[in-house]
Amino acid sequence: MPRYMSPEEQARYLKRRRKRIELMKTIGVFVILSLGALLYLAPLFWMISTSIKNDIQTFADPPILIPNPPVLDNYVEILTSPRWRRWAWNTIYLTGMGLIGTLLSTSVSAYSFARLQWPGRNFWFIVLLSTMMLPYQVTMVPTYLIFTQLGWVNTFKPLTVPPFVAVGGAFYIFLLRQFFMTIPKELDEAAIIDGCSTFRIFWNIILPLAKPALATVAIFTYMSHWNAFLTPLIYIRDSELFTLTLGLSSLRTNYAVSGIIMWNELMAASILIALPCMLLFLFAQRYFIQGVVMSGLKG
After folding, report:
1. I need a labelling partner for 224 at 20 to 30 A (CA). Which of 45, 101, 169, 247 fits?
2. Rounded to whole angstroms, how far apart are CA atoms 175 and 131?
């Protein structure tokens, strides 16, 4: 600070200095975040770049960062392939069934734990939460043996029936329960006075108010079923029943057997598989963030 300054000048000088320091901090944070974003976006950029290369550009040495000219033949080949269309339909069907079943089962279970009074409710809720500590690998073998005895192996039933008949995922039930508990119970009491049944209160009052939480569960469920690999791999044998992830893995295996991996086709297929999830989160992130925050899960 310069010497022989009046109090007013000193105050203005300190104010300008604080502004410069804040500006430097903002620029530093922006630079660090930008570098981090570029680090995470680099693989995605390389995938997109490889997906629009021809075979010669794909195996060029040194690698070509920006293809010239870019080609869309890889995307056209995948979109016009009958087997890829079949795998896409299988994935859409399994994702849709899992989404409907999970939303129905988890919402009903969460409503029971949040709004209804019945003996042992808190105890069984703790038991339900304790199942989150069991990894899928623990229940994988006995579940497979059960479905084998039922004759469901190599069918869609092990992937579509459980979301409907089970009580739903513990995490989703916990999320919805937390949201349901934020809804004033005076609404239930007013509805009961008007003659509403328990199911009608759930269907006409609770669910319309729980759209953010339901959207969050729907996004999580959609992404988990769309990207599922291990469970379809265990139960599906026929290539006609493959999902997109299994089809991509089989394509990778076929290339490895032949000795030449067509990375441009694999990258194009990977982008097409990941694109629906990215678009869903992009357009539904407002509901997703609102549901997480209002459910009491924010950090």
Report:
1. 45
2. 15
3-class secondary structure per residue, 60-123: CCCCCCCCCCCCCHHHHHHHCCHHHHHHHHHHHHHHHHHHHHHHHHHHHHHHHHHHCCCCCHHH
Domain containing residue 220: 82-294
Residue 132 near residue 171 (C-beta atoms within 8 A): yes
Q: Kindly report each contact of residues 159-162 with a partner whose C-beta sits within 8 Å and lies 24 or more positions away, as own/partner.
A: 159/94, 159/97, 159/98, 159/228, 159/231, 159/232, 159/235, 160/94, 160/97, 160/98, 160/101, 162/101
Half-sphere exposure of 107 (CA within 13 A, CB side): 24
What's the CA gap between 115 and 284, in Å, rounded?
28
CA 180/CA 259 separation, integer angstroms: 55
Residue 12 is which amino acid? R
Question: CATH code at 143?
Answer: 1.10.3720.10
131 inside domain: yes
Tell me what the mean pLDDT of segment 123-148 comes to: 89
How far apart (Å, rounded) are the C-alpha atoms in residues 177 and 172?
8
pTM for the full model?
0.82
CB 49 within 8 A of CB 70: no
Among 153-157, 179-183, 199-203, 252-256, the minimum mean pLDDT is found in 252-256
| CA atoms of 169 and 267, how far apart (whole Å) | 32
Tell me the mean pLDDT in the region 251-264. 75
Residue 12: how many other CB atoms lie within 10 Å: 12
Q: Are 206 and 136 in contact (CB under 8 A)?
A: no
Among 44, 92, 56, 79, which residue's Cα sits nearest to residue 271?
Answer: 44
Is residue 99 included in any domain, yes or no?
yes
**Number of compact structural domains in the chain:** 2
Instruction: Let me know whether 46 and 191 are in one domain.
Output: no
My answer on whether 18 and 114 are in the same domain is no
